[in-house]
Fold this sequence. Notes:
Layout: H1 2-20, E1 33-37, E2 49-50, E3 55-56, E4 63-68, E5 73-82, E6 97-109, E7 115-119, E8 124-128, E9 136-140, E10 145-155, E11 159-166, E12 175-179, E13 198-199, H2 228-238
Antiparallel strand pairs: 1-4, 1-12, 2-3, 4-5, 5-6, 6-7, 6-8, 7-10, 8-9, 9-13, 10-11, 11-12
Amino acid sequence: MFFASLASFFLLASSALAQGDLSSGHNLTGLAGTWSSGSRKVVTGAGFANPNNRTFTYPPTAGVSYTFTDSGFFESARYRFNGNGSTQSATDPHCITGIMVWIHGTYTLNDNSSMTLNPFPDGYQQVQDPCAAETNFIEQYNDTELYASWQIFQDQNDGYKLHLFNFDGSPVAPLFQVSTTPNMLPTQNLRNDTSSPQFVTQALFKTDAKTGDAATWSPRGVVSVASALATVAIATLLL
C-alpha cells in the first residue's frame, strides 16, 4: 500500500511538472505573433472581422487563429461548424450550425501554466442554424476564457506549432505561426455595444452545388432589427 501510494504521488508530481513546464524545451519560441490552424485561411485582423458594424468576412474554410503581443494583448478569430447544432443535424446535412467568433482583449499567463483571456466588451459571434427558429443571428461575446496549458513545439515541416488546451484539457486545433508580427486590430475597445442581438432575415449561406459542403458557404447580408419579436414576424413573411 505504501509503495502504491508513493508511486501515485510521483506520477501526479511528474504530470504537474510536465503541464507547468515553461522551459525552452517546451516553448521553443516566443508566444508573440499570429498563429493559425489547418490551411491557415482563418487569420485575425481586419480581413476577418469588422467590429464597427459587427460583420465578418467569411474565409473559404473553417479554422481558428490567435494573435498575441509581448505587451499582454490578444485577438482570436474562429470559424467552425457544429454537426450537433440541431436535433435534425444527425440525419439532415443541411442542419449544420455555423459559428463565427471574434474577440480581443488582454491575456494573463498564470503561475500554473494556464492562460486566461480577458476580452474587451466589443467581442461578438454569429450563429447560423438553418433548422432553428432564428436561423441566423449576431450577438455579443465577451466571456472570459481559460486554457489549462499551452506549449510551443518545432514541427519539422511547418515550423513552430502552438498547442492550446481548453479548461477541461481538450486540445484546440494545432496552430502554426504565420507571422512573428502580431496581425490584429487596435488593442482597445472598438465599439460601444449593447446586448441586443442582430437577427438575419435571409439565408446567409449557400452550399456548393455539387458537394453541398458546408465549408463553402458564404454570407449574403445582415439585417438588424430593434426587436426579436418583430424580426421573427418579418422572417415569417419572407419565408
